[in-house]
Prior knowledge:
By secondary structure, this protein is of the alpha+beta class.
Amino acid sequence: MPPSCPRCRLPLRAEAGVDLCDQCGGVWFDRGELEAAIEAAPPQGAVPAARPEPAVRYLPCPRCTTLMNRKAYERISGVTLDHCNAHGVWLDAGELDRILAFEAGDGRERLAIKLTDEARLDRERQRDASQRWARIRAGLESY
Length: 143
């Protein structure tokens, strides 16, 4: 029996190594398949407009029916994946196009800048905390 769509509960249709829902347009990628699809994808153009996110609902994994975790793809892409650690990733209609546009555009560069900025802020916070702790130990400041 084919796996069922976590949104529509209809059977998924296997095509080109992934499972598709003909009703809602969602796609199931078994572990490692999403990464392979991104690598194999031709270059994309402009970023497609984001669809309104469906109401937040934890979806069952099509393979094991355990509720999947929700996780942001590369933190700043604007795409939230439904992810089963054991089996794979569910993408709602249009999310694959948005991921491919993120990868083809300046998404990686923006992510690197964000991570660099966050690391700098963390170092500054640690430095400030160390300096404050030194002042507290010296009796120049209290908790």
